[in-house]
Amino acid sequence: MDVARSTRHFAKRAGISVGLAAGMAALLSGGFFPDMADADPRPVPAEGALDGFERFVEADGDFAFDPATATRGLVHLGSYFVPMGDAAGFHHVYTQPGVPEAWRRDGVFPDGTILVKEIATHRVADYTTGRNVASATAPRQWFVMVKDARGRFASHPLWGRGWGWALFKSDAPTHNVATDFELDCLGCHAPALSSDWVYVEGYPALRGSALPASDPDREAASQK
Ligand code: HEC
Question: Do 17 and 85 meet the contact criterion of CB atoms below 8 Å apart?
Answer without folding.
Answer: no
